[in-house]
Specification:
One of its GO terms (molecular function) is ATP binding. With about 270 residues, this protein is of the alpha/beta class. It is about 30% helix and about 20% strand.
Length: about 270
């Protein structure tokens, strides 16, 4: 859908979101979030800031106590756009419940009205992207933690969503699996998939987001802006109980255009300069 000016409608548009835990503790407090079509956005905040809860509200997995969420410029019913919207929570077990990995990957497409053979094509394609080919006939509980994480992501991708919401997608993942997942997210973004990533890890943000919604410890929006603007504001991050990226701390005050990653620092200054 498009807006009144003919531009693509936001993938997700939320306003006035509030949610409290059963004991009354606020988790999300008056949050407004708009995610543009094809945009990459990080929900960044310290542990306990309500990031996971907010992500699940945006993905239609939790009903807010107040506020609204609209999808693709139209419905407020996440289930009505479930074939366009995938949410990956932290626990792979939420997605791996069939006897084999292949059946888990095929579960989402089986709920869609697809031509014969299309579900199998999607399973094979995504399995190849995430190097799961040799694991397809295995029971999910026999996979390693990193393999389970990749299989859960694959199950979210076989519906070929327009928007993908991920909660700490590389948490507790080894370097090889982390690189595989981040490379795939880059490819998805290049294809126009909207990405929303929840994380407390400032080091991850430059790899997954062009814009940041920064949450404070009380579940409120402390700031929102381009990734560079947020990650180089050392005082702001510190006030939100976050540690700025290591490279930012290293170059803070020493360079006008502070690099956000080690790779960017090497490209700019060379190995001898860092």
């Amino acid at each position: 859908m498009t807006d009144a000016d003919g531009d693509p409608a936001p993938a997700i548009e939320a306003s006035g979101l509030r949610y409290a835990y059963p004991d009354g503790t606020p988790a999300v407090d008056g949050v407004d979030v708009t995610v543009g079509d094809g945009e990459r956005v990080a929900l960044l905040g310290p542990n306990g800031a309500g990031k996971s809860t907010l992500l699940q509200i945006l993905g239609g997995l939790i009903e807010p106590d107040a506020g609204t969420v609209r999808y693709f410029g139209g419905t407020d019913d996440a289930d009505a756009v479930r074939d366009r919207l995938s949410v990956l929570t932290q626990d792979p077990a939420d997605y791996l419940f069939n006897p084999t990995v292949r059946e888990d990957l095929a579960y989402g497409p089986s709920q869609q009205d697809l031509p014969d053979g299309e579900a199998d094509r999607r399973v094979e394609r995504v399995a190849d992207l995430l190097d799961l080919g040799e694991l397809l006939e295995k029971p999910p509980f026999r996979l390693s933690g990193g393999e389970q994480r990749r299989a859960a992501l694959a199950s979210a991708l076989t519906v070929e969503p327009d928007a993908l919401l991920l909660d700490e997608p590389v948490s507790n993942v080894d370097a090889a699996n982390r690189a595989t997942i981040l490379d795939l997210l880059d490819d998805l973004s290049a294809e126009g998939v909207t990405l929303v990533v929840s994380t407390p890890e400032t080091e991850l943000v430059p790899h997954v987001a062009d814009r940041v919604v920064l949450l404070d410890a009380a579940g409120r929006v402390a700031a929102t802006g381009p990734t560079r603007e947020i990650l180089t504001d050392v005082e702001l991050l510190t006030d939100c109980d976050l540690r700025p990226p290591q490279v930012v701390r290293l170059f803070d005050g020493l360079a006008d255009d502070v690099p956000l990653t080690v790779a960017a620092a090497r490209e700019r200054f060379g190995d001898d300069g860092i």
